[in-house]
Amino acid sequence: MPKIARFAALLAGVVIVGAALWWWLDRRQSPTELRLYGNVDLRQVELPFNGSERVAAVLAQEGDHVAQGQLLARLDTSRLAPQVAKAEADLAAQMQAVDRLHHGNRPEEIAQARANVDSAVADADNARAQFARLRALSDSSSGRAVSRQDMDSGKAALDTAEARLAVNRKALALELAGPRKEDIAQGEAQLRADQAQLALVQQQFKDADLLAPLNAVVRSRIVEPGEIASPQKSAFTLAITDPKWVRVYVAETDLGSVHEGKSADVTVDAFHGRGFSGWVGFISSVAEFTPKSVETTELRSSLVYEVRVFVRDPGDELRLGMPATVHLTLHDGNGSVPATARGSRPKPGDT
Description:
By secondary structure, this protein is α+β, with helices and mostly antiparallel strands. The chain has helices spanning 2-29, 80-103, 107-140, 148-177, 181-206, 339-342; strands at 33-48, 55-58, 65-66, 71-75, 209-211, 216-221, 234-251, 263-268, 276-289, 303-311, 323-329. Strand 8 (263-268) and strand 9 (276-289) form a beta hairpin. The chain is built from six helices and eleven strands.
């Protein structure tokens, strides 16, 4: 019995040691973390003026943190200000012209036209009476009392008076009818054109101020006071500080462990012992060859998928191109993806 007991104890010890060895080897063969290597990347903005004019002032330097809407530089507006004033005057004049068309003729103008008609009626009546007397005298004397010239002059005076009467009556009718609808439409169209011209020169005047389109850091100051700005020439290069990401490449065999929204931890050599929290934000749908600048444990010629891991960097410590290591947890203690990785994708502004 002692021999059997010793043999059983020895066998149990072997089983325990074997199980422990198998568990240790299984842990060694099943890593719980995926490490990816890449570089810090961020977006940049080439910011030009929207007009061609001489630069009057530059208010930002390289390295300045600028906020959205902050004034960075200004153009000379000595030629733009008179254009704005002229456009405003043209618009005011056209507005008065359109108002006059809509209001029609004044009562005094209509009264004046009526008076002109009355005067023309009196002149026509007088000319008709004069011609009638000349004709009667000529008829009674068989043409000897009145010369042919006097008869022609009387007839011409009558015709002139009647024509003037017709003209004044037409003028009165126009005064009563008021402006034509086509004239009103033309005036309103010209008014809209003047409004558009004023808006254009006002926008050009506004564009003389170069504003930061978003929160960023000035990387390059390219223009100086006195230079001629142009829409084709950048005045500043801005680096967007949020969001930042690390561009890494994942082999096809590891792609099943990575998905959008999965949490990640990013470390860089410049900050030993520190990590930056992040998440997987983009996974390319197209395979490509690994860039030569990326260090991986696989062959450089193997096909991989580009992945962008967004990083929270409230202190703006990560720099463009900085080598970085991304740590992705593959499984938790139950062999499933952690809840932090299964959640919805965080936003860049979340804390």
